[in-house]
Design goal:
The structure holds two protein chains of two kinds. Chain A is α+β, with helices and mostly antiparallel strands. Chain A is built from 22 helices and 21 strands. Chain A has four domains: 204 residues, no CATH class; 125 residues, no CATH class; 199 residues, no CATH class; 153 residues, no CATH class. In chain A, 53% of the residues lie in helices and 18% in strands. Chain A has a six-stranded mixed β-sheet. In chain A, strands 13-14-19-16-18-17 form a six-stranded mixed β-barrel. By secondary structure, chain B is of the alpha/beta class. Chain B folds into three domains: 50 residues, no CATH class; 126 residues, Rossmann fold, CATH 3.40.50.300; 42 residues. Helix content of chain B is 35%, strand content 25%. The chains are: A alpha+beta, B alpha/beta. Chains A and B meet through α12, α18 and α19 of A and α1, α2, α3 and α4 of B.
């Protein structure tokens, strides 16, 4: 009996059943893909980091290194399993010339290394430790992906010839978000190159037990060992590796939650319409003594069939797309060992979708309990309470066209019925606006100032060289006399000791100079102005446990001085732990200097940048735009693409859902339609009632969706943006797009969909439908 | 006397192939202006279908229907809708009211559609009709707050709003008890006396006995008619009119 009922029911409502199956399939596919990707990504990262034996603790250091001192520390420290110091030979991108491209414009710190002996291996694309011969060069993967070079290409590095022998996976620096990239050469070649660049040291440790990492970190700092550069630990390496694919997974998960929600709303709507249709039968079934659970089974079984169909289809579809999505993970991280587990997890997640649907249908069907058999048999329809629009009488209406009035009154009177469409439309408005605002925000010129970078035109970095202050002064002199430069500021970073309240010591890097010229955005407080003020980056504030108004005890020129924290800002540069102050100090060594400048004529940024780069080859000169494009360009453009894809998807869903709901509504309202037709309403007039219903619902949805997008959406987007390191931000909204174009697009889409969905109005015959 | 409806040889069939059967099988009939006509016949004889085709709510497969000088087959859907709105009124077995409107709004709805600017006059007319139908106090009530008889009166008020040339009634008393049924028929008689043409489809001898002319239908054909003349309560001949109808029905083996 079930089989026949289900088959007839599904066949009778082909369009609706098919749409529900599609949404369930899409939901199952996305959830399964997300599960497969998560398992593969974590598996691949683990495999990569295990094979490469990634260091647990790494201190980058430029300058002299005191090996005996370090060795003594290692001998005494009980946590250490292995220890090594690797060299990283910085060579300016200009000196690296591929056959077709050069790395002159690269903002990455490109450096050369030899294969290490103990751990932190550089791997080939099969996951094996590379053995490199003289004359061969192994190139970081990112240069394969962006098409800079290919295997067999000839390369000139500072005048020495190499052949690209292959590409390498670097468990530390694979990600584009890691600002350094390691090239691998043989020991002999390295010796020749060493004279041509500046050496930076990677002081690396592997611990016996990773859980002792924090204790070890404190021990290292307390010992006052080499620390002129960022410190990076194993969990951070893992995070950096996971970030870009992790974001993709997060987006898939977000979209899948949305699709699941829409599938639920579809099911809810069709189910309620069906219950309404069968109201009298349900009453009769209850009257003749069937239990609610028995009646439920009849309905539940139909949705079980739809859910199984959708889930199986979705799971199969996930196989089609998963290779494409796994491509990037496989390339950068290699094959995961979790493949079969991924399959199982995919299955489990699809099963989860299935069970959720059944559970949901079951809970909707609980309203059977509330149906009174007597009432159902007598009236045949639920005596729905008109919750709104009571004071909204046609007889008092002077303002609106009768059909528009009836449309709006219907929405207000049957709010529950329209709640589904309304909720979907709010979600759609949300997914149109939020990614667009996010894209607008991160692609705005202003955005760099959320990331600890002042908004200037040209940035000159002077580091990893000797006599930094002298060289900085030299460039300053030139800038002062250059009429093309309208203003500039020199910011010098030095390390200072902080006396903590518990008596311990921490060292922090402070950028000294005038911070008001190219200000960054402060999430709290403001830039330092007086000598006794200091601003901290978000990460530093957290690490030091300070907030605005707190006092920091700093050792300046050998004396303890109290500085007030005047502001907190977001920063993604230099490992995120920075500080800004205006006092002067001549005793500490300059670690690096930055000169930010603004040009009188913005069109000259490129030639001026090149001119300064040529003249001061010891400095890294970059236009801020180029800097942003190279660091975040790929991310910005993929968010841009994603935001346009979101619009397309939202509009398609809007059409689908509106057509579906309108068809259902017309079917449900066929009696009222027949009555109105009998009294002389034309099909056009009746359709205009439906148009006014959908447009009314849509307009309210647009208002709520926009409000939500700008509040809740900002929080969601904030989570994405904070993954770039910026902690607080404001949406940069393009009002024309967000408040005119997108709503207009939605209105047009919904209008077209309503017209399509209400075509059946014309086919409703009075004679067949007027009898209840 | 002017004819408001003339139909000739109309055929209307339902179903396809072997299952196709003529619900109306060559029906010809004329309705005069100011007449009160009823159609009787067993279930499935085609009474309601005849009413729907004469009012332009359903198309005929063959034959022609002429309403007030217009051939209905030449009119498009919008023109038919206009015709119904301006010249016809309908009363159905169930009250056919819209759930989300109160009773007053249900009555004014058909007329207000095209005449919003006349809203005060329309409201006034509705109130007059409601008074006549003795349902003045129900104005702001919803459907669920009125009895079947009251709702049917609302339906009649709605049918009268446009001052129609003809009122079609499909078993207007079919769902009512005998007291309500009697009251509704008296209201219809009053309306008829004020000059409106009425055509009713009914099973009920008591209802048909109060009409001027009764048409008998069997299997899609009109098989006879009975001219009873106008009913006058003062003559006290209702029983005799009913008995005559019973005789005729027996003759036709209803």
């Amino acid at each position: 009996m079930y089989y026949r009922t289900i088959r007839n029911d599904i066949l009778k409502n082909k369009a609706i059943s098919l749409t529900t199956i599609i949404f369930v399939a899409a939901a199952a596919m996305l959830v399964s893909l997300a599960a497969i990707l998560v398992v593969n990504l974590t598996g691949a990262i683990d495999t990569l980091m295990t094979r490469a034996k990634t260091p647990h603790f790494m201190q980058m250091h430029s300058g002299e290194i005191d090996m005996p001192n370090l060795s003594a520390f290692v001998a005494e420290n009980e946590y250490i399993d292995e220890f090594q110091v690797l060299e990283f030979l910085n060579i300016d991108g200009v000196q690296i010339d591929f056959q077709e491209n050069s790395l002159a414009d690269s903002v990455q710190d490109n450096g050369f290394s030899i294969q290490s002996e103990k751990f932190d291996y550089l791997l080939d694309l099969n996951g094996n430790i590379i053995t490199v011969s003289d004359g061969e060069l192994y190139v970081p993967l990112c240069y394969m992906q962006d098409g800079t070079t290919k295997v067999g290409d000839k390369v000139r590095v500072s005048g020495k010839n190499f052949v690209v022998a292959g590409f390498l996976r670097d468990s530390q620096m694979n990600s584009l978000l890691a600002s350094s990239k390691r090239f691998l050469v043989s020991e002999n070649d390295y010796k020749e190159l060493k004279e041509l660049g500046s050496v930076e040291y990677l002081i690396e440790f592997r611990l016996k037990d990773l859980s002792t990492l924090n204790a070890f970190g404190t021990a290292y700092t307390t010992a006052g060992l080499e620390a002129n550069g960022p410190t990076i630990t194993y969990p951070l390496f893992k995070t950096i590796n996971a970030l870009s694919d992790g974001m993709m997974i997060a987006v898939i998960l977000l979209v899948s939650i949305l699709v699941v929600a829409i599938a639920f709303l579809c099911i809810r709507f069709t189910l309620l319409a069906k219950i309404e249709d069968d109201y009298r039968e349900i009453g009769v079934m209850k009257a003749i003594g069937l239990r609610v659970s028995d009646i439920k089974k009849i309905y539940l079984s139909k949705y079980a069939v739809i859910a199984v169909g959708g889930c199986v289809l979705g799971f199969l579809l996930s196989f089609v797309f998963r290779d494409k999505l796994l491509e990037n993970i496989r390339l950068f991280m290699g094959e995961s060992e979790n493949n079969s587990i991924a399959f199982v997890f995919g299955m489990i997640s699809v099963l989860f979708v299935f069970l959720t649907i059944i559970f949901y249908v079951n809970s909707v069907l609980n309203r059977f309990r509330k149906i009174s058999p007597a009432e159902a048999i007598r009236f045949g329809v639920s005596q729905e309470k008109n919750t709104g629009g009571k004071r909204f009488y046609l007889s008092n209406n002077r303002l609106l066209n009768t059909n528009i009035f009836l449309g709006i009154k219907d929405v207000l009177g049957r709010k529950k019925l329209y709640a589904t469409t309304f909720a979907v439309l709010v979600i759609l408005v949300f997914i149109i606006i939020v990614p667009q605002n996010l894209y607008n925000t991160i692609s705005s010129k202003d955005f760099v100032s959320y990331m600890g970078i002042g908004q200037c035109d040209m940035r000159i970095d002077i580091q990893q060289t000797d006599n930094i202050s002298g060289k900085t002064a030299e460039i300053s002199q030139v800038l002062t006399n250059d009429s093309l430069i309208s203003k500039f500021v020199v910011l010098t970073t030095k390390t200072f000791k902080v006396n903590m309240d518990d008596g311990s010591e921490e060292s922090i890097k402070i950028e000294l100079g005038d911070h008001s010229i190219f200000p960054v955005k402060y999430s709290a407080g403001r830039a330092p102005v007086t000598k006794d003020e200091i601003a901290l980056s978000g990460m530093n504030a957290e690490a030091l446990g300070k907030k605005v108004g707190d006092i920091i005890k700093l050792m300046i020129e050998g004396k303890e001085q109290a500085l007030t924290v005047c502001g907190i800002y977001s920063d993604v540069t230099n490992g995120g732990k920075t500080a800004k102050a205006v006092f002067t100090d001549d005793s500490a060594d300059t670690m690096w200097s930055i000169i930010n400048s603004e040009l009188v004529d913005k069109s000259l940024i490129e030639p001026t940048t090149k001119q300064y780069a040529d003249r001061f080859d010891f400095a890294k000169v970059s236009g801020i735009d180029a800097y942003v494009i190279q660091t975040y360009g790929a991310t910005i453009s993929s968010i841009g693409k994603a935001s346009y894809a979101a619009i397309a998807v939202a509009l398609v869903i809007a059409i689908l859902i509106t057509v579906l709901f309108m068809k259902l509504l017309v079917a449900k309202d066929r009696y009222s339609i027949a009555v109105m037709k009998a009294f002389g309403f034309t099909s056009y007039e009746i359709k205009s009632q439906y148009v006014s219903r959908s447009v009314f619902v849509l307009l309210v949805a647009i208002i709520l969706g926009t409000i939500l997008a700008n509040t809740l959406g900002a929080v969601v987007a904030g989570a994405v943006i904070s993954s770039f390191g910026a902690s607080s931000f404001e949406f940069v909204i393009n009002p024309f797009l967000s408040y005119v174009i997108f709503p207009l697009m939605m209105v047009i889409t919904v209008l077209i969909a309503t017209i399509i969905g209400t075509l059946d109005v014309e086919r409703i015959k009075i004679s067949e439908n007027i009898k209840e | 006397m002017n004819k408001i409806i003339t139909c000739e040889n109309i055929v209307k069939s339902f179903g396809e192939g072997d299952e196709k059967h003529n619900v109306l099988d060559g029906v010809s009939v004329e309705i005069n202006e100011g007449e009160f006509v009823s159609v009787m016949g067993p279930s499935g004889s085609g009474k309601s279908t005849l009413m729907y085709t004469l009012s332009g709510m359903d198309h005929v497969d063959a034959g022609s229907v002429n309403f007030d000088g217009k051939d209905l087959s030449t009119l498009n859907e919008n023109e038919l809708a206009d015709l119904r709105r301006i010249k016809m009124g309908f009363i159905f077995q169930q009250p056919t009211l819209l759930k989300n409107l109160n009773l007053l709004d249900n009555i004014i709805l058909p007329l207000l559609n095209k005449n919003r600017e006349k809203s005060p006059e329309i409201k006034e007319r509705a109130r007059t009709l409601m008074k006549r139908a003795d349902i003045t106090e129900l104005e702001e009530r919803n459907i669920s707050q009125a009895s079947g008889g009251q709702l049917q009166r609302v339906g009649i008020c709605r049918a009268l709003m446009n001052n129609p040339k003809i009122i079609f009634g499909d078993e207007p008393t079919g769902a009512l008890n005998s007291k309500s049924s009697n009251e509704i028929m008296n209201l219809l008689l009053e309306i008829h006396r004020s000059g409106t043409t009425i055509m009713l489809v009914t099973h009920d001898i008591k209802v048909a006995a109060k009409t001027e002319r009764v048409l008998f239908m069997i299997d899609g054909k009109i098989v006879g008619e009975h001219l009873a003349g106008a009913y006058d309560e003062s003559r006290d001949d209702l029983k005799a009119r009913e008995d005559r109808l019973i005789e005729l029905l027996a003759e036709m083996k209803f």
